[in-house]
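To illustrate the input format used throughout this study, we show a single complete record. The first block contains the structure-token representation of the backbone; no residue identities are included at this stage. The design step must infer an amino acid for every position from geometry alone.
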């Protein structure tokens, strides 16, 4: 599965795998794809350095990349000063905190032990945190830098280009894609409505060719609802130069999901068991539908807060739900492709299945085309 872009990056398959797990990223690259480590969970630069060191030691010299989250709009204080995490925390209304306390009490979710860390706090949505991640990452031979929320700032794009690193950005519409092109982005990821995490409202079948036409000759990667070789072939037929896959890796044996109960929920879920909700970050993000997302989406509730307030608000609650495996509330970002995620497999097995399916789909189309020319 070779395209001009995959050849430029030196990978066997034009298959880009986004994941928060270093072991999965390295396995994707070893399997002939291009692993992309999500950095948003890293609040301490030393933790990111540790995991990039690990990837370097386990990627067998194959290329890999990094995905950061630098929102197009920053939360700023008076006179446009940059706010600290404590400043942002102070902006959270007490009514929202009480809503969380009431919801957790309703389901009997235990408190964390005294002194126990509240786990992942989504400070990676804040630009200054993302910049600290980049200060670490640019010391490594990454080949791609992706941004999940708009184009990175111009100085970041320039810094990446100065080091020979390609820059990608996700887009949910042709209008967004054109802005990326104008900002000097090298690769546009057309992320359809079906995708897990932050996503727009246009389905992949419509979005991909629109973006391809909008940013030509820039390469486009198709994302959202792709979890089989047939779907990969369809993406290339629509003009994409590769695919961007995220959800499909969540149930691989190399993944490190925090709860066996969560893994089983993913394996049992159908494609209709997800919802676009602001419950996790304040922006619409596709995730498993749970009684937690229902509570936040209830019009009688307080409503969600804008990014990054919502992420900071729910961080401890999400940690408690995961630690104590409170099944009705337990969820994770995941796309509609969850309906195909029915068994735990290795990354290599997933890649093998994808590439075999791609070859069969291409052969089928070639036979059809051959018959039509007779």
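Output of the design step:
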């Amino acid at each position: 599965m070779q395209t001009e872009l995959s050849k430029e990056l030196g990978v066997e398959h034009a298959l880009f795998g986004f994941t928060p797990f270093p072991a999965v990223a390295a396995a994707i690259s070893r399997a002939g794809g291009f692993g992309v480590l999500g950095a948003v969970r890293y609040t301490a630069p030393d933790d990111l350095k540790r995991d990039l060191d690990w990837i370097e030691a386990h990627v067998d010299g194959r290329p890999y990349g990094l995905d950061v989250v630098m929102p197009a709009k920053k939360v700023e204080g008076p006179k446009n000063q940059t706010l600290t995490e404590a400043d942002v925390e102070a902006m959270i209304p007490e009514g929202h905190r009480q809503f969380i306390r009431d919801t957790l009490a309703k389901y009997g979710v235990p408190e964390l032990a005294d002194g126990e860390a509240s786990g992942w706090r989504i400070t990676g949505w804040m630009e200054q945190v993302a910049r600290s991640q980049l200060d670490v990452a640019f010391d490594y031979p990454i080949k791609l830098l992706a941004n999940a929320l708009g184009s990175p700032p111009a100085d970041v794009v320039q810094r990446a280009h100065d080091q020979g690193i390609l820059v990608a950005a996700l887009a949910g519409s042709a209008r967004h894609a054109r802005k990326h092109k104008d900002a000097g982005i090298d690769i546009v990821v057309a992320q359809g409505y079906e995708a897990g995490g932050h996503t727009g409202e246009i389905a992949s079948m419509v979005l991909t060719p629109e973006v391809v036409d909008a940013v030509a000759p820039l390469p486009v990667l198709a994302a959202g609802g792709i979890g089989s070789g047939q779907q990969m072939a369809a993406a290339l037929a629509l003009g994409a130069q590769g695919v961007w896959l995220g959800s499909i890796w969540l149930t691989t044996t190399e993944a490190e999901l925090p709860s066996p109960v969560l893994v089983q929920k993913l394996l049992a879920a159908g494609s209709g068991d997800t919802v676009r909700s602001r419950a996790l970050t304040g922006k619409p993000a596709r995730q498993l539908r749970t009684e937690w997302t229902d509570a936040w989406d209830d019009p009688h509730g307080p409503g969600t807060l804008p990014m990054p307030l919502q992420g900071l608000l729910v961080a401890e609650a999400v940690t408690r739900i995961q630690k104590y495996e409170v099944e009705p509330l337990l969820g994770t970002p995941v796309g509609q492709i969850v309906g195909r995620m029915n068994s735990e497999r290795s990354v290599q097995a997933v890649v093998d299945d994808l590439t075999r399916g791609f070859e069969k789909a291409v052969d089928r189309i070639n036979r059809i085309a051959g018959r039509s020319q007779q």
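Structural context for interpreting the output: The chain is about 40% helix and 15% strand. The radius of gyration is 20 Å.
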